[in-house]
Write a structure and sequence with these properties.
The protein is mainly β. It has two helices and 36 strands. The strands form five sheets. It has a 22-stranded antiparallel beta barrel. The longest helix is centred in the N-terminal third of the chain and has 4 residues, at 66-69.
Length: 680
């Protein structure tokens, strides 16, 4: 059974629009708002789905709950999406362990990552950021597709993924989770939420994490480690103050230290050494300016320092990043039907980079004014219109409109649509970190920060089937189209027309006469509680991604999966004493780079094969603690010869970046979760 806190105080307005039409307690968390922590919290026992589509949200939002995060080993955020067809996670290369997501057929850098509605995983943290968020630190994840709110900027070109951490007000003085896998990877999380006074004005949560693997392995015999040796530490402390006058203050710090070594098993061979350190601090202040709390002022301030020292055999890449995000806003809820939000925000990134011996300094600024109007007509109809004007350093002014519509003609049927513009500065090497895991010559605009520009439009229909009055049975269909008008293209050409040496080229979409870069994405979701305790979820996604590249023979975007299907079955006995989870996925083929055709007799038709993945887990729950064990990739499927020219790693055509499938076979794990609840 899952416990969650029913809440009932004024939300902290520093995190954008709260959904006032939430249907269930868990819907107080979402893309358009932060969970409303309560000083007078009440613990309720109830069942909670692992994954579900939020019925009350204005925008199509898939929620992965704490129960869903427990379905997998979930050592980190990168391992939390196996039950979702919306998000696909893969490796950036075969040596560094960097993970990347795809949403709507586009790279994860076009998905805005939020930590309780603060932009995160930008710049230097983007390649490894998914590895640095422990799954057990999270209370839920919300995935919103398409153009979302303008309040946190417009980098959400294909959608947003918002992470809700465990709260200071949680009634859990101690939570401990530990697990170990057969590949020697182990992790430990210790979390403590404390309320510090009888009036509960002050509360805090301390989150500590360590993970690493003790032994390097090479199951496929190519001489390279399947997974880098690494040791990662993370520590976070979050605070909440709630005054009797309604003032809320939230602040916190987080520190991360990560060291990883990948490459050949032979210490004298091709090696990558990466040292990542980061420090983040934030503060949020919400102040009501009317007695009823309908008018409020809010301030969000966030600072991140990131330092990266890395060596990819003979190539070095060292960089530092200082980022500041400040957002000030005013919100007026004039009635149940109308809400206005006005604000100004600044995102400043200062980079100091040494790229293979070349020093590069960059200062990227985005100063924006915005307004957002929300109209609700009961439960039947809602509309959100957002307008934003941004000044980008070195570029000038850009205007961004966004619209979200929701219509529910009857209670069991919901239609949604959204559309708008997205803008972001590119970081060529960081956005495509796998290029450093090659010996190819890097050419073109790889030191420039192009302002990328896109438009995304989409619609969704969800039907809650009438034979299930609980609302847990639904059929959902959605379609989204994303088109870029400017983008920095990455072209793994292998060989230049003017040289016999292999090249990787970077160039702008605008330099391609008649060039295109777009995706069409269709997804169907079905979920039902077949009988008490047994839930079945079936999801299918088809993606048509197109991109014009100089050295590809067609415009099908390379290394992008055409489809994915996911089946998840869960059975829980009475009182959830035993929980059985099974997930099967079929991952479709992708178009390979032209130079890969025929490599070692593979990809003769230019496509990778489709492949299955199986996951299973059994959990036994006792009073105060859980024991669980499971397996990943139970089919044992792995990508054949993932590293091109692995036997001659210092030759010019060595390339470890062409990854489309699993790198490791069957993994078995076991773990324990211990919870101590607060007592009066």
């Amino acid at each position: 059974m899952n416990r969650y806190i029913l809440t009932g105080i004024l939300p902290l307005l520093s995190v954008v629009c709260i959904d006032v039409h939430a249907q269930t307690p868990v819907d107080t968390v979402g893309i358009y708002g932060e969970r409303r922590d309560s000083l007078e919290a009440m613990v309720v026992v109830g069942s909670q789905a692992g994954n579900y589509l939020s019925k009350g949200k204005d925008i199509r939002t898939e929620v992965i709950t704490a129960a869903g995060l427990c379905k997998m080993a979930c050592c980190n955020l990168a391992e939390s999406f196996e039950n979702s067809a919306s998000v696909t996670v893969g490796y950036s290369d075969a040596v560094t362990g960097a993970r990347q997501i795809r949403l709507l057929g586009q790279s994860g850098v076009y998905t805005q990552m939020l930590d309780e509605n603060r932009p995160v995983m930008r710049g230097l943290s983007a390649p490894w950021g998914l590895n640095y968020v422990p799954g057990q630190w999270l209370e839920s994840i919300q995935i919103a597709k398409g153009s979302t709110s303008v309040i946190n900027g417009v980098e959400s070109m294909t959608g947003q993924i918002n992470m809700e951490h465990r709260k200071p007000t949680d009634e859990k003085p101690l939570y401990v989770q530990a697990s170990i896998m057969n590949d020697t990877k182990a992790d430990l999380n210790v979390i403590s939420s404390l309320q510090l006074d009888e009036m509960s004005k002050w509360s805090t949560v301390i989150l500590a994490h360590v993970d690493g693997n003790f032994k390097a392995m090479d199951h496929n015999g190519d001489g390279f480690m399947d997974d880098p040796k690494q040791l990662n530490f993370a520590l976070s402390n979050r605070w909440l103050y709630f005054g009797q006058d309604g003032v809320q203050v939230r602040f916190g710090v987080r520190a991360i230290q990560d060291n990883r070594t990948g490459g050949q098993m032979d210490p004298s061979g091709w090696r990558s050494d990466i040292n990542n350190r980061s420090l983040n601090g934030y503060v949020k202040v919400g102040v009501p300016v009317s007695e009823d709390g309908n008018r409020s002022l809010a301030l969000v301030a966030d600072y991140t320092y990131q330092n990266l020292q890395s060596v990819f055999d003979s190539r070095g890449y060292d960089a530092g990043q200082n980022s500041v995000f400040v957002n000030m806003m005013y919100q007026d809820i004039s009635s149940d039907n109308h809400k206005f939000t006005l604000g100004v925000s600044e995102m400043l990134d200062v980079y100091t980079e040494n790229v293979m011996g070349t020093d590069v300094n960059s200062r990227l600024s985005d100063l924006g004014l915005y307004g957002e109007y929300t109209y609700h007509s009961g439960e039947k109809f809602s509309a959100i219109v957002g307008l934003r004007e941004d000044w980008y350093s070195g570029v000038g002014l850009r205007f961004t409109p966004r619209v979200t519509l929701k219509w529910s003609p009857v209670e069991s049927l919901v239609f949604r649509a959204n559309g708008g513009r997205g803008l972001r500065y590119s970081n060529p090497l960081l956005d495509n970190i796998g290029v450093l895991s090659t010996n190819k010559i890097i050419n073109g605009d790889y030191l420039e920060h192009t302002l990328e520009d896109s438009w995304t439009f989409g619609a969704n229909a969800t039907w809650y089937l009438p034979f299930d009055k609980s609302g847990k049975t639904f059929l959902s269909v959605d379609y989204f189209h994303t088109a870029f008008t400017e983008q920095l293209l990455y072209d793994n050409t292998d060989f230049s027309t003017s040289s016999s040496l292999p090249y990787i080229n970077f160039y702008k979409l605008s330099s391609m006469s008649g060039g295109l870069s777009c995706t069409d994405n269709i997804q169907v979701d079905f979920s039902s509680e077949i009988f008490s305790g047994f839930t079945c979820t079936l999801t299918g996604r088809f993606t048509d991604a197109r991109q014009t590249l100089l050295c590809q023979s067609d415009d099908i975007k390379p290394m992008t999966s055409r489809y994915k299907a996911v089946l998840n079955l869960q059975y829980a006995t009475h009182l959830n004493k035993w929980i059985f989870d099974f997930t099967a996925s079929l991952n479709g083929p992708c178009r390979v780079w032209d130079f890969m055709k025929g490599y070692k007799g593979m990809y003769k038709d230019g496509y990778t094969p489709a492949y299955p993945l199986l996951y299973a887990q059994v959990t036994k729950r006792f009073k105060g603690f859980d024991l669980y064990m499971g397996g990943e990739n139970l089919t044992g499927y792995t990508q054949r010869d993932p590293i091109i020219n692995a036997s001659a790693a210092r030759m010019p055509d060595f390339d470890a970046s062409c990854i489309w499938g699993p790198l490791m076979g069957v993994k078995v794990y076991a773990g324990v979760r211990l919870t101590i609840w607060k007592t009066e």
